[in-house]
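Slide 14.
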Amino acid sequence: MTTNTITTAPDTTTAPDVTIAPDVTAAIAAAEADGTRLDFAKAAPKVFRAIIGFDAAARQGLDPALVELIQIRASHLNHCAYCLHMHTNDARKAGESEDRLHMVAVWREARHFFTPREQAALALTEAVTLVADGGVPDTVYAEAAAHFEEEELAHVLALILTINTWNRVALSTGKVAGTDEL
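Slide 15: predicted structure.
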């Protein structure tokens, strides 16, 4: 007779106990109280301007609707509410339909809302944004290369890199969705 034994892994869903220094605790409490963290633009103006310049250069020659779709999808994947709010509003102002905006997160199941070119850009956005999960597959890259001239493809890649940078700036500095229009 065989006995089946079930073993379970230790519970890793809870964070380990961490001792936080009193000055760090005070800084966290102050940031939570006033809802702010570092003002990145003021603290590192040259870096901030460089990212703005990179972003502006990346957009050159790209369809504004495509730019917003890429930025929206990356912001979904990065869970960046601040950027998602900003770019969905920008897309609406540029004439994007509510239907398409609602379908960006599930574009693979709603392909008929997007052109093959947009689908290729969205797939590349996902692969580059989630690059640590398995790199950029050759098939995804080849599909994008089939829809974009070399210079355009370079700009699409640069745009994906810039929105990922902006997402990380917004998330790490605690930007609050809805405050981008102040």
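Speaker note: Residues 10 and 16 are 12 Å apart (CA to CA).
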